[in-house]
């Protein structure tokens, strides 16, 4: 039987991921502390804690992949006319961004995808919190289950 205390704990596990805006890595620290301290109290709290932590790890993994893919596009565009062999100081250092190349468009598109993913992440966290408040189980989409 779920009581309000269990629902509130599950809700706060999801909402504690917003602590990343105050504390570095708070999106991991907050849910892990709340989940570890309360996972034995009910399966409901355990399930929501695992879902919140798995989602945050998955989001971190996806952000690393998008960042790894987009950074080379910007680097190749900015430094395409520079010869590193003949580089002998900052006297002749010119960065040409007059004519955007397709590489810059691809990198910009990946950046736009990252912003869109951030907005979707915030919406999914709020949705999971509301589901926990109502006593429903919630499964984040596109989540890799690291904790089972």
TrEMBL record:
Naturally occurring in which organism (per UniProt): Winogradskyella endarachnes
TM segment ranges: 12-38, 59-79, 103-126
Name under which the protein is recorded: DUF4870 domain-containing protein
The keyword Metal-binding is annotated on this UniProt entry: no
Membrane topology per record: Multi-pass membrane protein
InterPro entries named in the record: MamF_MmsF
UniProt KW keywords: Membrane, Transmembrane, Transmembrane helix
Pfam families: MamF_MmsF (PF09685)
Ribosomal protein as UniProt keyword: no
Subcellular location: Membrane
Chief location: membrane
């Amino acid at each position: 039987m779920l009581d309000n205390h269990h629902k509130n704990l599950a809700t706060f596990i999801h909402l504690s991921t917003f602590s990343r805006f105050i504390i570095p890595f708070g999106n991991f620290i907050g849910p892990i502390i709340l989940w570890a301290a309360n996972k034995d109290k009910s399966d409901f709290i355990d399930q929501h804690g695992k879902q919140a932590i798995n989602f945050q790890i998955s989001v971190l993994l996806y952000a690393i992949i998008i960042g790894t893919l987009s950074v080379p596009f910007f680097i190749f565009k900015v430094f395409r006319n520079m010869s590193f062999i003949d580089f002998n100081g900052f006297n002749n250092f010119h960065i040409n961004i007059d004519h955007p190349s397709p590489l810059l468009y691809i990198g910009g598109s990946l950046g736009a995808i990252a912003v869109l993913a951030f907005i979707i992440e915030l919406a999914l966290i709020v949705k999971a919190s509301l589901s926990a408040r109502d006593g429903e189980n919630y499964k984040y989409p596109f989540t890799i289950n690291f904790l089972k």
